[in-house]
Structures are given as C-alpha cells and as structure tokens.
Amino acid sequence: MTSPRSRRQGQKKLSRKMIALGVVAIVITLAVVVGWRLAEDEPALAEAPEADAVLEVQQHLPFQILIPLYLPKGFDRASVNITVDQGGPNGEPVVELAYRMRRGQTINIRQWVPLNPDLETLAGSKPIETKWGKGWLLTQARGVIALWVDIGPLRASIYSHDQDVLTREKILQIAETMGPASRRQVFTFEVPKPEIREIPPPPPFEPEINEDGVQEFTLTITPGGYSPMRINVKKGIPVKLHFRALGEVGCGNTLILPIGGASAQSVTLESEQDEKIVEFTPQQAGAFTFFCGHYMYRGILTVVE
Amino acid sequence: MHKLLLGVLLLSAMVLAAPVASSLDAEPASAQATITYNLYATDGYVKLADGTPLYTYGFVGGEQGRPLSYMNRLGAVVNDPGGPPAPTGGPITAAEAPLAGNAQLPGPVMWAKVGDTVTINLKNLGTTVKKAPNDPHTIHLHGIDVDAANDGVPETSVAAVPANAVAPGAGNVVVYMFTPTVAGTYMYHCHQEADIHVQMGMYGALVVYNPGDAAAVDRTRGPNSGFGGTLMGATYAKDEIMLLTEIDVRQHRSEEAGAAGGAAFNPVNYQPQYWMINGLSFPNTIHAGVGFVWADWLATHKGYDPLITGSVGAKDKVLVRLINLGFETQPMHVHGFHPKVLGSDQRAWTWGYSPTLGQGLEKNTITIGSGETYELLFDFASQAQKSTYQTGTQTRYNATTGLPSSNTTTTDPVIPDPFTPPNTYIGGPTVAGLVGGTALGIPFQTSQFFPFHNHDDYKATNNGVYPGGQFTFVVPLP
Q: Do A98 and B34 touch (CB under 8 A)?
C-alpha cells in the first residue's frame, strides 16, 4: 500500500507528465498553425492576373496598355485574349484586349494612340462626361454598346455586342478605372485637372507700436518683390523702417520712399548683409508707392488716420 | 458521429470540386468576334468588257490584318500582305497614299455573322483627277437598321471629308460600329449625292451568316468560298453573290471632266450602255475575254465570281444572293432551273421554303428593283449533268471544244451513231471531249451551260454587242 506521500508524489509526477504533454501538444499545434499561416500568406498587394501577359505585349508597343480595375462579375481576367494589329508603317498599332465570360460574351477594349484625335469620330455616338474628360457613347437599339474615351494621348474603345453584359453604368465604371497593368509601373497618363481659384491677397502688414512709441518693422527686398508688399502705418506716429535685402536684387538695393516731408527718402544697401534704417513721421494720410531704383519692384505704404 | 464525418467529407469534396468546374471552357466555335474593315473612298479607272476605260468612284481596302489584294487603275495586281492600313485622321499618310486613285469595282465584300461586332473605318482619300469634284463620302449600310446618326446619310449624320482637300475636318475618319442581328444578304453604298455616287461605283456586297455556318467558321472563308450554311430554313452547300449594276458612260465622263451645273450630265437622262454582274460583263462573267486575266481579277475581287456551278452527284443546293445596286429594275431569267425564293430584303418569305407545305415560291424569272435583294436556292439535283443530242447530219459538234455547233457548219463533224463504239451515251449520243476546256476553269466533261441572264435582252449586250452585259452561266457538274 502506497503512502499518501508517495501517492501525492505519483500524482504530481502524473500531473507533471500531463503538463509536459500539454505543453508539447500546444507547441506542436502552434508550430503547425504558424507554418500553415506562413505558407498561405499572400503578398499584401496582388498583381492582376493578366499583368504579365499585358506587359509582354507592351514591350513591343510605343504606348502603355491600360487595363480596367473593375470588370463585371463573371469575367475571367487570366484568359484575356490580347491581339495587336499593326495598322501600317505610318498607321497606329492597335491593341485589343478581349475579356470573355464562360458562355462566350465578350467585353473588348481596344487601345491606340490617334495622331489626330479630333479627326477620328465614332458615328452616331453622343458625348458623355467621364473622369478623364469627354467620352463618346454609342448605344443602339439592338446591338453594340461602345464608349470611346481619351486617357491622355491614348484612346480606349470599350465595347460589347451584348448590352445585358455591359450596361451603361458598367461601361462607365470600366472606363474610369483604367490604369496600368502592373503595380510595378507608373501611370503615365493621369492628368489631374488643375484647380484654379481666386486667392485673395494677404492683408496689409500693420507694424506694432513698440515701447518707444515707434512703429518699427523690417522691410525686406527679395527677387520676388518686397516683403511685406503692403504696409499700413498710423499717421502722426514715428516710423522706423529697417531695410534689408535677401538674394540678388540688382537695383532693388536702392529703396525710394516718397514720403517723410517735402522730399522723398532714398537709401541704398551696399551689400547683402547691410541694413539701413529709415526714420520718419508720416503727416499726410494716403497711399504711397515705394519702389526700387528703376521702378521695377514696387510696394504700397498706406498711411491711415 | 459517422454521419457527421460523412457530411463533412462530402462538403469538403464539393468545395474542392467547385474551382475545377468553374474554369473557363474552351472557346466555342461560334464565339462572337470583332471584325474591323478599313475602307478608303477614292476614285479610279476600270476597263469594261469591250476594253473601254471608265472613270469610277469607289472603295478600296479590306479586313484589318488580313492580306489585301487589289487591282490598280492600270489593271495590275497589288498585294499587301500586311493588310490595309488603319486610317489615320488628317492628311494622307505614307501608308495610305498607294491606295489613292485605285478604287475597286465593286467595293470589297464585307461579311460577318450574327452577333459579331463589326467596325468599319472609313477615310476619304479624295479624287486624284484634278477636275473631278472632290466630294465627301459615307457608307450607308443598306438593310442593317442602325440609328440615323450611324446610317451613312451625310445630311443626317457625318461624312468623311477628303483628306487631300483644304477644308475644316479634312481627312476625318468615320468609324461605324454595328452588330448584325439578322442573317442574309445586304449591301453598302455611298449616300453622298446618291444619284451620282452610286452610279459611279461606290457600292459593294455585305453578307451576314448565321453563327453555326461553315462559311463563317474563320475569316479565310466567307461568301463564294465553297462553304455553306443555313438561311431562312434552308441548308446550302455554297453561296454566290450576284450584284447587278449598270454603267452610263456619260455620267462617268461628266464627273471626270468636272462639268458642273448645266454642263453636267443630268441623271434623269440615265440610259446605260453596259450592264454588269459583280462588276463584270459577259464574257468576263464566265472567266473569258480578250485581254482579261481571270485569275488576277478573282484574286483582287474575292467573293465575286459570277459563274454558278454545283455538283449534281452531291445534290448541291447553292444559294445565290441576288442584289440590285443599279438604277433599273432587272428581270433575271435562268434556264433549266426554278430556284426557290427563300426570302427578300433579309427577311424570309412565308411559304418561301417549306418542305412540308409544298414547293414554296419557285421563280425562273425574278424581277429585282434597285435596292432589293433576293435569296435564291438552286437545287442541282433537279438537273442532269449532261445533255443528250440527236445523232445524224442534223447535229454537229466542234471536235476541239466538244461544244455543239450549228448544223449549217458543214466543216464540223456530225454527232455519231450511238451504237458505234467507242461512243457512250445516256439516253442518246452525248458530246464527247472536254467541253469548255480549262480556259473556263471547268475541267469536267459536261454539256450543260444554262444562261442566267437579264431578260431585257438588250441588257445582255455590251453597248449593243451581243452577247454581253448581264449574262452568266449555271453549270451542273458531276
């Protein structure tokens, strides 16, 4: 008969074994799971299935072939049929991508670089706004649907004889998601529309009155002009203007201020490091133009009440 | 427990099998295709059957990517293995320049099958003759029922402005895209000043096949390639195009001289002197003629052979696609056969071909107006391959050609007695020898040449010289 102590020790041994087994099991499981996950790990950015085929064709062409990011459901990208027609020695090479569905429905994308895009028109098409600008859409009662769109210099004709497969919304979506075939490429045709906005000029600079009761500020002349270009000073309060130059300003080294008494004040900087101080008290309200020696650089000093 | 395991196994099997099943099938034979034609409108010269040179307008070009063979204005064959260049908008490019001034008569055959997407790129290269008017041109797809803006009528849609002109938009390329939905025989022609341009030669045949047709299996086949299909319920072994037109040389000379206004030829005075099938007048229609090289003409006008042949032994049914692109109504009469009229203007005629309800509509003289088409089915099993001729001094034959000759030609031998060997006969003496010889391309011993001609018989002349004009043969072969 075993003593309680030995029994406890046995149990401890057993439990240790179990613990050991458990640890081993966990380790094995972890190893298997990690190995499985590593093996299945796909690259974070997947290439389009047809990218390699397109790139191979593209190396013989003078333009970049674009493929759509969006295709309606059911189209197998990997089986895309790429044909190149050489139009002629002076003609444009045309590449045609034909994506097929299982039952034979096709979406074709024909691409070429027209030499005179305005002179090649799709008869019976109407203009339609796309992300790339104006496109031309052809829809017929029974038959072909086609969209011509110019992506930079490249013209793409997206068409299908089957309007159920390629509806108007889908054809627009295909056109607007056209891009380079591979992530290894730069998109050469993206032309962002420039945004032209009226920007109001910055408000005039108003120097603060320091503890001496003087409006003190620095006027810098740069090749781009005076900084600040517009200054508001108060009448009757003395002004102390530090004049400096920054960069090659030529005749801008000479500053002519036509205020401060009966005659204009004028200072000239000897070098880029030089600083000249102009002091005056404006007595007359109004706007006065200050300028450089040849009246090329100009600014406005406004004396307010 | 076991059921669960079985269920899991089944489920996993299905999941594994699914990707295999959804892989793409092999491309079906009737897969929809895209066909592109590059056509150029220009002017040119052709020679009529009696050697008269004729100034024409027309189209030249063909299918993109397929070898192009055309006849230039001097009658020489020009081969372009790369195919016609794709038109480039703007002035005439170096690739397009050789085509200018070489319009074909008739324009190239265009063909597709139902469901294909057809694209036609048209560029106008302008006229090369200085005095001739340099007009815009279009392509009207006659019978296709596209919408008006695509229809090729310049007044309601867009026209191609000559590339050699100084005008806004000169050298523009007009792209027509359509999907044929009905199989049949169509035509295309220019619709700019149609009263002049159609007469001047700006026309051609357009054929649409059903998706399963043997003639449409690949782009090397097509009309008149020896392959058949089905149309309007009938099955045919091969098809032929017969495109009827006429020529009034005064219209052509007026355009060539650039006469405008009052001095120009008034189309209401139209009275042709020449009549043509597929641009040929007899004897060119049967591959013969002085100074006419049939092989060259056929190589440059693929699909337009007007000589109709069929095998009696194989019980061939031959589909003849009759098109009228002239300005006169023509009664076309065929000897020896009553072809069934399957349909007209790309639509089947009710009772046109109904084996269960009787004979359908059979005509041996069919009157076809300008712009109409008729689908005629010739059953070669209905006619024998050989004729039988009387023996005796009342029947003679030409020993060289084997053709029968008049019984007043006493220098020719008499058709011999059937009982004297080595003559063989079927129901009577037959004319021995190679009838027709190889000059007509018919190497078989036959004696049946059935005229298929315009029954306004003055139109079977070349400016009054008989036989000529719209006159060809139907030849049953063994």
A: yes
